[in-house]
Design a protein that fits this description.
There is one protein chain. The protein is of the alpha/beta class and 385 residues long. The chain has one domain: TIM Barrel (Alpha-Beta Barrel). The protein contains 16 helices and ten strands. It has an eight-stranded parallel beta barrel with strand order 1-2-3-4-5-6-8-9, surrounded by seven helices. The protein starts with 7 loop residues before the first helix and ends with a helix.
Amino acid sequence: MRIPGMTAATIAAACGLVLALFSGAAAPAAPAAAAPSTLKEAAQTTGRYFGGIMSTNSLANGTATSLAAREFDMITPENEMKWDTTEPNQGDFHYDRGDAIVDWARSQGMRVRGHTLVWYSPDADSQLPAWVKQLPLDQVRAAMENHVTELVSHYKGKLYAWDVVNEPFNDDGTYRNSVFHQAMGRDYIAHALRAARAADPDVKLYLNDYGIEGDNTAKSNAMYDLVKWLKDEGVPLDGVGFESHFQVGQLPHGIQSNMKRFADLGVDVAVTEYDNRMPVTDPQTQRPVNPGDLNQQATDTASVVSACLNTARCVGVSQWAVGDADNWVPHSFPGQGSATLFDVGYAPKPAYHAALNALGGGGGTQPQPWGRWNTADEIRGVNSP
């Protein structure tokens, strides 16, 4: 019987479908989506970012900028926004170095974390100009608020976040005896945050410190109490940065639970300056004394990234370099190095793949056999699973 309106072609197609159903033939499966192959792409699938730092020196290095553009979607200037660079003399502001990094990052579709507005700066670094330290104490607040206002206003609408106050605590949890604390006590932190918010209502405002990553230590408890006080007082604060400068195999206890307790106060958390150093034979090649440390570094890195992924308000991870060639560790910790995800030639290390895998990515370039190191033991140490 012919059904009105059905053509021969339609009937044939219908018959073919029936035969396929009865024969058990399955329709072709849609191809699986490829796993993200870069850190930034993998992090983005989780609603987070993966970042690094950039200096003016690195900005002139095409290998470093190419790697950063491929792998990172958040950039923090290393020193280019610190007080000695931006206001070396009172009222004399310079933005060219910071602007160069911001302009480059934005041209690559990256966001930028401003670093940093108020920092005590150890005397050895001298990144807080002498004129600030020598001010009469009754003039410090005005100078600080003016500095904050000028910088935040200059970059208004261009930054994702500011590290407003950097490293306010000693290792024992007491406040550093900075000129700011001498002049205002802990209130200097609230004054700086309020000045930053007045200058840019939309940028994220952070406190940032090292040694606060572990749960229930003197320093992390001090930061926790500070954040709670600021939130209770209605002071604008959006996040806490855990710098995360570690030594291989010595991660602090309770990183994830510590992130959660800060998040429970109503702030975001972020890993802001991650590196994980190990003993090396020399600062140029940063060849590990024990090549097996590279595998431990990979394990540590996966743990840090996973802690962020398992904390709803952890917004991202940044390492403190583009690669080992740019990292501060060999200069500040003699005999130490190889602290980042990329070696001195910007090749990915096992830690890179550990981070990528933890973020749900895959593929990409496999770890290099470190050909400039010639022994089979070294090659096995780098590449062993």
